[in-house]
Amino acid sequence: MTIAGVPVSLKSEAAANIKESTIHVSKWMELGRGDWDLPKLRDMFLEHLESYERIFTLRCLSRGPKDYFYELVEIPKALMLEAKDCRFELTEDSKQNPKPGYGYVNDSNGNLRFALYFDGGTERKLQIKQIKKVLCITHASWQFESAPLE
Fold first, then answer.
1. Where do the domains of the chain lie?
2. I need a labelling partner for 58 at 20 to 30 A (CA). Which of 12, 16, 76, 121 fits?
3. Phi, psi at residue 44, to the nearest 5°?
4. What is the tens place of the pLDDT at every residue in 11-66?
5. Degrees (nearest 5) of the Cα angle 82, 85, 87?
């Protein structure tokens, strides 16, 4: 989408096991058919990032039956671009074909900042796991009550 002339990617997260301190994007993009080469797939991700300037995620941290808590978090594009230097690991013991793999992005002390997960299942999609929320910008959060739908 475009906001005031700025191309934006909007993701959402509402998993039952959501964690407040980390962000998980279960489907960043589809990887399609073709070579299952992790560096090439990472490069597809980096090319995909060129199509927008800002990345937001709308997160539902708790819901119902009456109380809801949401937040709007910006994932810095510069953070995602750090994937260019990720460390790859293929999951050899997986029964999926092609085998899934990871691209780990660590800080200078070796601490994980986030991970690319190349899901070799039927959808062949890219997930982004364990993005440290402290590395992102929380723009808004709101809590509200809602009457149950009947």
1. 2-143
2. 121
3. -60, -40
4. 999 888 999 999 999 999 999 888 899 999 999 999 999 999 999 999 999 877 77
5. 120
Tracing tokens 């800002």 back to the chain, one arrives at: 54
Q: Are 143 and 68 in contact (CB under 8 A)?
A: yes
pLDDT tens digit sequence for 107-117: 999 999 999 99
Asked if residue 83 lies in contact with residue 116, where contact means CB atoms within 8 angstroms, the answer is: yes
Residue with tokens 């119902």: 64
Half-sphere exposure of 71 (CA within 13 A, CB side): 17
Separation between Cα atoms, residue 35 and residue 123, nearest integer Å: 15
Q: How is the chain classified by DSSP, letter by letter?
A: -EETTEEEEEEEE--TT--SSEEEEEEEEE--SS---HHHHHHHHHHHHTT-SEEEEEEEEEE-SSEEEEEEEE--HHHHHGGGGPEEEE-TT--SSSPPEEEEEE-TTS-EEEEEEEE-STT-EEEEEEEEGGGSEEEEEEEEE-PPP-
CA angle 37, 40, 43 (to 5 degrees): 150
What the block records as the tokens of 5 is 């002339």
